[in-house]
Amino acid sequence: MTGPEPLLEVGDVAFSYGRHQVLDGVSMAVGPGEFVALAGSNGSGKSTLVRVALGLSEPQAGEVRLFGVRPAQLKDRWRVGYVPQRPVVVDQLPATVEEVVASGCVARRGWARRPRREDAGRVERALEVVALTELRRTPIVELSGGQQQRAFIARALASDPELLVLDEPIAGVDADSQSRFRDALVTRCHTDGVAVLLVSHELGAVEDDLDRIILLRGGAVVFDGPPADLTAEGVSLGVHHHDLPMWLEHPR
Amino acid sequence: MSLPLPWPFDRGYMQLALASGLAVGACAPLIGTFLVQKRLSLMGDGIGHMAFAGVAAGLLIGVSPLWTALLVAVAGAVTIEWLRLHRRASGDLALAVFFYTGIAAGVVLTGLAGSLNSGVLTYLFGSVLTVSPSDALSICVLGVLIVGAVAAIWRALFAVAMDEEAARVAGLPVDALSLGLAALTAVTVVAAMRVVGVLLVAALMVLPVGSAQRVARSFGATLRWAVVIGMGSVVAGLSLARAASLAPGGTIVLVAAGAFVATAAVDLGRRRGRPA
After folding, report:
1. CA A2 → CA A6, A31, A173, A193, A213, distances in Å?
2. β-sheet bridge partners, residue A23
3. Which residues from B are below 8 Å from A78, CB to CB?
4. Given CA atoms B164, B165, B168, B174 in this order, what sign does their dihedral have?
5. CB within 8 Å: A94 and B158
């Protein structure tokens, strides 16, 4: 194989919850600087695949490599930034946006160490990327859902990761936040060279920026290629057309 | 020998109570802030009941109840957290199992010891006015250890309490930090036993935090306010208890509850005054 080594590589992975097979022989990879979307209908196994890829769940078969090693063996975990599906915000949590974002630096500098000057710089840059600098001292519970989601993206960016994994980050987010979210991802991916794996079925906001789309159905990959190949089949990624969800349910 | 402090802390026994109370008033809300954030507000209560079993065991076998309570409370707290982390039981179920097992074991061991003696009551309801200089020293040493540990790792504890999964992916030692927090909770409960009693110890872990959340606008400020309110409740509670001959443990907790009501009222007024 030529080209750079993938940052994330999943080979023939199978995973089941009891008798329910969720992933069945899934293989995929994300290379350096790539902007990849992982899409599929509800229950297709997207979130499970992400959990397996990040080492949060152990597959029953197959192999996962993060930066060339098994996830459990990866020492510099800060190289992976992760935005989980619907992060929990405790109703009365008075943490500021800045405190939430700064918590993303803790693992990189060492969990018992005090923040250093470079940590402040990373937090500053992450806040700028998601356009939340002016709200840095605002308690996160006072932000809208979209702004909170951007704060959690900034938290994932604060360790300067080489691979950013986002699980349904724009579900239920307003149009303005979707646009800022798109700008943030494109900046990190195409300007800074950060690889992005975006799990979503609302790909309209990033349609023109994606290098590849991976589609899952019934726990198996049914498409892996550039968006142009998909649109050539007459499938639109626009969020208002609902073409992609329809195609996933009933492929032509 | 007593220090030249003004009333109500002019007597030696009040000064020992003040020192013990301030140590507990500082460290209980510090630990409680993380428990509240993790939605484990009742953890202190559950561990308190296990500590009661440890106290009863100590009285039965003639060993200092402080150390047997510490042993049982730390073992129980770490087990509860391990069960929760490994999804063997939900957080509240694990707590309930240990809660009732602890209190039942305490009752049985107390019965074996002969009768419900005053030693047990001292730990159930607290008896801060009778702490000896060595008790006060032990409580203060435990308090300093807890405050020092939290000062060193609060940012990591905050990251884990806010989002365990993201912290795990980032490479933080989530299991070790969670088990460490559970152990610190147990140490806090044991340190607070003589001040407010095992039945009320969770109140000092939760009420000042609830008040602080109403007035603070950052996590760091919540930690600081919670400590100030916890220590303030101890000073005001001890003063009121001496002035009106009230039970000091209960009075301290009632003052903390009063602070919670007051801050909640102020917060409510502020929200109503804010434009929609």
Report:
1. 11, 12, 39, 19, 21
2. A15
3. 170-171
4. positive
5. no
Which positions 152-211 of B are in contact with A (Cβ < 8 Å)? 152-153, 155-156, 158-159, 162-163, 165-173, 177
The pLDDT value given to residue A205 = 74
pLDDT of A243 higher than 80: no
Closest CA–CA distance from residue B157 to any residue of chain A (Å): 9
Beta-strand relationship, A35-40 and A61-66? unpaired
Domain boundaries, chain B: 12-200
The CATH number that domain B12-200 falls under is 1.10.3470.10
Q: For chain A, list the domains and their CATH numbers.
A: 8-249 (3.40.50.300)
Tokens, residue B143:
């308090």
- What is the distance between the terminal CA atoms of chain B, rounded to a whole angstrom? 59
Sheet holding A195-199, edge to edge: A80-83, A163-167, A195-199, A35-40, A212-217, A220-225
Nearest chain A residue (CA) to B225:
A94
Q: Which residues of B touch A112 (CB under 8 A)?
A: 152-153, 156
In tens, the pLDDT along B54-107 reads 999 998 898 888 889 999 999 999 998 888 888 766 667 877 888 889 989 988
Q: Which helix (H) or strand (E) holds A233?
A: none
Backbone angles phi, psi at B106, to 5 degrees: -60, -45
pLDDT digits (tens, 9 = 90+) for A28-62: 999 999 999 999 888 889 999 999 999 999 999 99
Residues 205-234 of B with CB under 8 A from A: 213, 216-222
Contact at 8 Å (CB) between A202 and A41?
no
pLDDT in the model for residue A1: 46
CA atoms within 13 A on the CB side of B157: 25
Which stretches in chain B have pLDDT values below 50? Answer: none
Tell me the helix, strand and coil percentages in chain B, rounded to 5: 80, 0, 20
| Residue B203 in tokens | 């109140």
Least confident of A172-176, A234-238, B51-55: A234-238
What pLDDT sits at residue A239? 44
